Amino acid sequence: MKLVESTWEDVSKLDKNTPVVIPIAAIEQHGRHLPVSVDSMLCGEVIRRVSETLHGKVLFAPLTWFGNSHHHMDFAGTLSANPRLYLDMLNNLADNFIDHGFKRIVFINGHGGNIYPGKQATFELRQKYRHRSDLLLLFSTYWDLSPTPQVELKDFVQKKMGHACEWETSMMMKLAPNLVKGNVVDLKKVEFGFAFEPAYRGWITKDRTEPGHIGDPKHATAEKGEVLFSTFAKDAVAFLEKVIAWDGKSWF
To answer: Which residue among 22, 44, 158, 200 is least enclosed by CB atoms within 10 Å?
Structure first.
């Protein structure tokens, strides 16, 4: 069920053990070859496929496109919430559904910059509702839901998500090829990795990449995009089926 297509009475009548999925993403630069809407478009397509499979079993909130993208602000077109504002926004979204009686709140994320604040928001929510043993508060990122993605992605050059990379470019070639600009085979690889590991170095995107992408987009194809969408949607369905089956009290 989609929240935006429901009346307040429709929502009121739902079993309050129905999982609520809150998709979150971003509007930010994606190199010279992809539009700023990539994260929101890709996450939206994964959620669309998931909703078709789990129709009637999950309540899907509309996608929240305003994300935490300050590290991309040197690139025009990026829109970003301050980290504390973003934390509070996610907390408030969850609060709204909890106020309406729902007990299983699941953020499904489609932007790397949302991961740290998203996990922190979920942690803060659990402290706020520490007296509630019946709540399941979860934060997930759609490309991290597969335990063994290499099995599905054996023909890929990249083995993990980058930024405007082989994976995201392939998915955009499948979803909206008209929005992929130029000849991607001419794009140069930008290496993964954080300097000074195992320490975590504070960084902004222009420290790591001049064109804006990270990874190797020249290997992207629409066929790979379909493999990725199918894989991510299947993994998200399996994850949400575990949420549906939760007994309402156990740790697992």
So the answer is: 200
Q: How far apart are CA 209 and CA 207, in angstroms?
A: 6
* C-alpha 203 chain-centroid distance: 21
Residue 132 has pLDDT above 90, yes or no: yes
Give the percent of the chain with pLDDT over 70. 98
Instruction: Tell me the pTM.
Output: 0.96
Report the CATH number that the domain containing residue 78 is assigned in CATH.
3.40.50.10310
In angstroms, the Cα distances linking 212 to 40, 59, 204 are: 17, 35, 11
Token output for 89:
């926004």
Distance CA 25, CA 67 (A): 6
Whether 178 is covered by a domain: the verdict is yes
Query: With contact defined as beta carbons under 8 Å apart, do 247 and 104 qualify?
Result: no
Burial 186-214 (b: 16+ CB within 10 A, else e): ebebbebeeeeeeeeeeeebeebbeebbb
Return the pLDDT at 230.
95
Q: What is the pLDDT of residue 155?
A: 86
Residue 230's domain comprises: 3-245
Domain count, the chain: 1
What is the Cα–Cα distance from 176 to 77, expressed in whole angstroms? 19
Mean pLDDT of the chain: 96
* Residue 71 located in a structural domain: yes
Does any domain span residue 252?
Answer: no
Residue 160 maps to a domain: yes
